[in-house]
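[scheduler] slot 2 assigned
[scheduler] job type: sequence-to-structure, two independent chains
[scheduler] chain ordering preserved from manifest
[runner] begin chain α
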Amino acid sequence: MTTITRHHRSETSEAAAGGLVMFAAVMLFIAGILDLFRGIMAIANDNVYLSTPNYVFQFDLTSWGWIQLVLGVIAMGVGAGLFSRAMWARVAGVGIAGLLVIANFLSVPYYPVWSLTLIALYGFVIWALCVVPRES
């Protein structure tokens, strides 16, 4: 005879899991807004950025601004989707946060402190979305 064991999570762990998803939703949405503004800033006036002539990854800052703007809008949309705790939004949230980590790494020489700040923020978003169990 086979015994099936069911694990019931406490209300505290359910609340913590929900809190992590909401944390990720808010942070992804806010960081998306910041990337949107950063993209607009690069499109409107690329003199705001540092000029690094010997950087391995050199980009036209206007096209880089469009990339930041689009990624920021997508991050805002996924962040809004996370408020419903949908699984698609968690998967997309990890994906878009990963892309934004890469994008911010590539822009470190142009805006160093801000890029590193956003990399850390997106790292927290990825952690929060990955640590919550699937059922919550």
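[runner] end chain α
[runner] begin chain β
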Amino acid sequence: MANTNGTRPGKRRLLMSTVNSILLYGAEIWADSLKTKKYCHTMTTVQRRSALRIACSYRTVSAQAVLVVAGVIPIDLFAFERKRVYGRDADVTRRDAATTERDATIQTWQEWLTEETTGNWT
């Protein structure tokens, strides 16, 4: 996909959501394996490439910065969110649990970004 003068941002976001769906298939089961740095880095690399296309950025932009610019939640936080939603009690509807967990994920991402050193200026 061309970096500029290519498809519209809406189509790029659609492709990103497809990439996230593929990456997160079965995340409720294997999310704990992302605590291993090697696996997390592999998943982040794939997500970063898609986020570079959404933001029309160059490849020198850090992963944290391009995810913020593209407005995409990091894959490890997204996988843990899905695991928490899956593990919720049956008395809470899945929609309410998803909303609550999304808010918690956004809060965790905000805290994570304030502690990061790379891409902080961006």
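[runner] end chain β
[qc] chain β: Residues 94-115 form the longest helix (22 residues).
[scheduler] slot 2 released
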